[in-house]
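Hello,

Our lab assistant flagged a job as stuck in the queue for most of the afternoon. It eventually completed. Since we weren't sure the result was trustworthy after the delay, we are filing this so someone can double-check. Below is the sequence as submitted and the structure that was eventually returned. Let us know if re-running is recommended.
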Amino acid sequence: MTRWALQLLALVFVRPGELMSARWEDVSFDDRRWINHPKKTKDIEEVIVPLSRQALEILAKVRNQSGHTPWIFPHRSDHAKHAGRGTPALALRRMGITDHVPHGFRAAARTILDERLGYRFDWIEIQLGHKLVNPNGAAYARGTHIDGRIAMMQAWADYLDKLKAEPITVRATV
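-- returned structure --
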């Protein structure tokens, strides 16, 4: 379950605590969306998270394990609670990865979607659950750009698949 949580964090780049406290009632396989209710962000009540084909495949596997609980990732011994918010970070440490944190998936996605894949800044910010920074425009910018973000999230998942498939090459620097 923790491996699937880490994979989903990379695909949807929400805050780790938001994923670990996510509920099945907020996921629609038919609409390919998860309605995230970020508790940390006071200004945003919900973020529509488009689910790529890859994210849906992982969620289907998870549902076979935890679909009988309200939580996507239930606590392993008390299904009335969700898994701990620190579970992904602990998993990375147990794998020996001490110089990265799960929250870093958000920064990586933000940078790569903008600089390498060329997606719109505002789409990425909406996806991250950030309030738009322009105080004049933010009052009027209430759109979700859902169609563009659906395409962006699928492109992101496909990009991650491509990275997994490519052999890693190390370049010596002189």
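-- support follow-up --
The delay was a queue issue, not a problem with the job. The result is valid. The helical segments are 2-12, 16-20, 53-66, 87-94, 104-115, 121-127, 135-138, 146-165. Strands lie at 27-28, 33-36, 47-50.
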